[in-house]
Amino acid sequence: MTGRPAVAVTGLGVRCAAGSTPDELWDSLLHGRSAVSLHSFDADGTVVHPASAMHGFDPAGYLAPKEVRRTDRSVQLAVCAALDAVTDSGGLHVAPERRAVVTGTGYGGVTSQENGIGQPDVLYAPRLMNNAGAYWITAKLDVTGPSLTISTACSSGTHAVGEALQMIRSGCADVVVAGGHDSPLTPTTALAFGRAGAMVTSCAEPESASRPFDAARQGFVLAEGAAFLVLERLDLARARGARVYATLTGYGRTSDAFHLTAPHPDGAGARACMERALADAGTTADAVTHVNAHGTGTELNDLAEARAISALFGPRRVPVTAPKAVTGHGLGLAGALEAVVTALSVREGIAPPTAHLTRLDPRCELDVVVGEPRKIPDGPVLSNSFAFGGHNACVVLDSPRL
């Protein structure tokens, strides 16, 4: 599209069970190495389900001990991932007022909220605020430009990346640190999703509990973590000799207006969202080389997304990957984590396989990548997020053009 600055992805940072760095995450995906194990959600071991928990996480070196006491675990993960992304980008090379931050989170400080019910201390409210992550990142990075937090359930991370793109295009920022974070591994959250029938609560082999598009799937697996990208004007990135993973070229968002938790059965809103993202990128479905699916492993979501992809691209016409088979579902984190994965797919020219898929649901007429990674040509790659509330968000990443 003409008249708009091109936007580069120059930095990546992650903290999740599948990897504490983008390289570790990528290796886990390429080898189908599951991050899921049995997890006790409470101290007494009365709520034990498969989950993707980040063991041994320590924010030391990123937050001082006093700051750790003031922050929820979700925010601690966010600060680490965001600062890593900035280090990976080579720093922020514009004035503080030309920097911005956009965070996405579905549950905010839910761990602190649940721990403090009935006995809140003076820091209770600041710990559980959804925008606490945005505050701490702006403070650590001296960002005095726009700061925004989005909470659209499982689309939050993708919406954050897309709105960051719009900030740069509109001219209100030159560099944006954008991503998602959630740490929802609380007993109440687990019990709620389990009783709703959306989450896997028992599995003979916990490591393979997350099985998007598989005929034997049982639901999603809850995960925690954070993922951030540094987005900047491509001309500025080129001028400073930055490494560019990919360009962020398109963003679409729609609403199903159908049901609070269920997607439209025919995937109409999801298809419209993908179409808008491709139109925004100035490309077409025929040019897309790969789709990074939302792929939660719930029947309703898998079927609706599969129908939308098949309707737009044609049955089995585009390679599809569902990273949640390895990472689990991090709610507000998910879209940002998968934007990182998509950027790596563009850079490496590889679509990672979908782990644990032994028998494709025959109702999902998709070319799901399984077994081994698949080479993909240069070209646009689409990343999908379709959330509770009917909130749909898609982004398009492409190979950087010299």
Structure keywords:
single chain; 402 residues; alpha/beta; eleven-stranded mixed β-sheet; three-stranded mixed β-sheet; 13 helices; 16 strands; 21% strand; globular
Can you describe this structure?
- The two termini are 16 Å apart.
- This protein has 13 helices and 16 strands.
- It has an eleven-stranded mixed β-sheet with strand order 5-4-6-8-1-9-16-15-10-11-13, with helices on both faces.
- The longest helix is centred in the N-terminal third of the chain and has 17 residues, at 73-89.
- Strand 15 (381-386) and strand 16 form a beta hairpin.
- The mean pLDDT is 96.
- With 402 residues, it is of the alpha/beta class.
Q: What helical percentage do the residues reach?
A: 25-40%
Report the strand count: 16
Distance between the termini: 16 Å
Q: What is the overall number of helices?
A: 13
Major sheet strand order = 5-4-6-8-1-9-16-15-10-11-13
Strand content: 15-25%
Give the H and E element order: EHEEHHEHHHEHEHEEHEHEHEHHEEEEE
Averaging pLDDT over every residue, what do you get?
Answer: 96
**Structural class by sheet pairing and helices:** alpha/beta
- Global shape: globular
Rg, Cα atoms, Å: 19 Å
The major β-sheet equals: 11 strands, mixed
Low-confidence stretches: none
